[in-house]
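Morning. Coffee machine broken again, so started the prediction first thing and wrote up yesterday's gels while waiting. Chain of 213 residues, entered below exactly as on the submission form.
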Amino acid sequence: MIKSFFSLILILLSCQLGAQNDYKPVTGNTLTQYKTQIKAKNLQINSLTCPFTQTKNMSILKTPNVTKGFMYFKKNEKFRWEYVNNPTFIFAQNGKTIYTKSGDKVQIIKDNSVILYQQISKLVMQSINGEILENNKEFTTKFEENGSFIKIILEPKQRNMKKFIASIQLLIDKKSYLASQFILNEPNGDNTIIKFEKVKLNQNIDDSIFILK
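Came back before lunch.
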């Protein structure tokens, strides 16, 4: 499930970005301006909900694996990632407590068995609160842009993380300054693309959806 989750994201991105591969490095005053605008937008966000499409490309698969689901975010480390395909799988974080639910089985996670989901949760939250723009301890960060997107490229520094992640790309829409796509590249060449759609900000989200039972 985890490998399928992440490989799926990059296929979608390669399709979406095939005609938008004209990225150029962003530095200096332009980079400072983008960071300021992204942070200003993020300060306005108390909650976020959206459907997503995830595309996984794996060397052992003849065709991409596509799944759909919903993402929920609320300030103070509340995050829920839910697949609507059968069987249903849910990853949720409520503060420091992490849950998974597969079918009717709920688990509280206390190890790295869902590290990729944990990274998505962490990076989504960091992209919303702006920490991802300055995360120099865990990642080497580069910024690029084209006419439509700002691309943040993250390469892990920690040896343990490098076992699972070769690089992560986050595409920020220049019109909304919100993340529109998340791409995860694995060391074995597999990749995953997640496209966020119809993002709704500051909707009322009940805290109970972040606790799985």
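Helices lie at 2-17, 28-42, 115-129, 159-162. Going to sketch it on the whiteboard this afternoon.
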